[in-house]
Design a protein that fits this description.
The protein is of the alpha/beta class. The protein has 12 helices and 14 strands.
Length: 347
């Protein structure tokens, strides 16, 4: 089975690559840009499981790339090819050469404040990037299963009586990122109905773990705590709204859900993925503080407050669990401990 991961150099994409490589008879392909950061693929590289195909080569056609993959591709490694999701011809060349059986589409601008600071770039990347992938699949005349990584941010404004949130809850996005993910989902449905693309959408609630970007709340807290442990900053940890409630899943559990969405999910369907339990940002901080090697205190930073925040997100994932049998396995305390250790190695 040939699989493609978009966004493989990102936080979740790297964990998905590792999981797919642990399975039997699954070949893993992905693309990168010359300016992509490879930090998240460090473990694969050290294990000898990172294979860059055609590095510094000028690949002009799908046939040329296909021939190169036949010669240089490895079944036991992540095969990387330089390409760009925002270039439709580049995507046609890549998809046409790999001819994947499954595509996991994770690439996106996923930082909510970033979407408010650069709304046009967020919409362009998230919507047009997916469009280019869909059109490349059509151009290649193939019929892969396609997973679309949606987001709980699509729900946006959620009233207390609407929780836990089911898939049929109204979508009221409160950020440009949320709007972009709703649009991706609608595009997936339209291509499923109009052109028969076998798309499955997961609305993933918050997920975290080692490699999480430092701008996201769990990693921001963890890095600040580690800096305090090493005497690099005062033991005051700055936070946004401490009362916001979030449903956190370990990314290593989330990528297994992505796999199961195509193994057992139904094309054209949308599934919530989350634990069904929410904690406040204040409680999150308390858990990290209990694992810290120094005493820390938390202080609200007005600059970290969002202009329109989503204050309550907790999943009803019963539809997905019934369909696939998925259950999160990793306790949140372990996730936070692993995240602290990740930053202890890097600060």
């Amino acid at each position: 089975m040939r699989t493609v991961i978009t966004g493989v150099t990102g936080f979740v994409g790297s964990h998905l690559a590792e999981y797919l490589l642990s399975l039997q008879d699954v070949e893993v392909y992905a693309f990168y840009r010359w300016r992509s950061r490879m930090d998240n693929l460090k473990d694969l590289a050290q294990a000898g499981k990172l294979n860059i195909v055609g590095e510094n080569s000028s690949i002009t056609s799908a046939d040329q790339l296909s021939s190169m993959l036949d010669k240089q591709g490895r079944k036991d490694a992540l095969n990387l090819v330089e390409s760009d999701m925002m270039d439709p011809y580049s995507m046609q060349r890549f998809i046409g050469a790999v001819k994947p059986d499954r595509i996991f589409h994770l690439a996106a601008q996923s930082y909510v404040p970033g979407s408010q600071n650069a709304p046009a770039a967020t919409l362009q990347t998230n919507i047009l990037g997916q469009l280019n992938i869909f059109e490349a699949v059509r151009q290649a005349n193939i019929a892969p299963l396609i997973h679309i990584a949606g987001s709980s941010e699509e729900y946006g404004l959620v009233h207390p009586h609407e929780t836990p949130i089911k898939e049929d809850n109204p979508l009221r996005p409160l950020s440009q990122y949320g709007v972009s993910k709703v649009t991706q989902e609608m595009l997936a449905y339209q291509y499923y109905r109009s052109f028969g693309l076998k798309t499955v959408v997961t609305r993933g609630f918050n997920h975290t773990g080692p490699r999480r970007g430092h701008v996201f709340v769990t990693s921001s807290f963890a890095r600040q705590i580690v800096e305090a442990e090493k005497g690099l900053r005062p033991s005051v940890i700055y936070t946004g709204d401490p009362n916001s409630m979030r449903d956190f899943t370990d990314a290593r559990d989330m990528v297994k859900a992505y796999w199961l969405s195509l193994e057992k999910g139904e094309p054209g369907e949308v599934y919530n993925v989350g634990t069904g339990h929410a904690i406040s940002i204040r409680e999150l901080g308390d858990i990290l503080a209990s694992l810290a090697k120094v005493k820390v205190e938390f202080k609200v930073d007005e600059n970290r407050l969002r202009p329109s925040d989503v204050t309550l997100l907790v999943a009803d994932a019963s539809k997905f669990k019934k369909q696939t049998g998925w259950e999160p396995k990793i306790p949140f305390t372990k996730t936070m401990g692993d995240l602290l250790d990740y930053w202890r190695e890097r600060v």
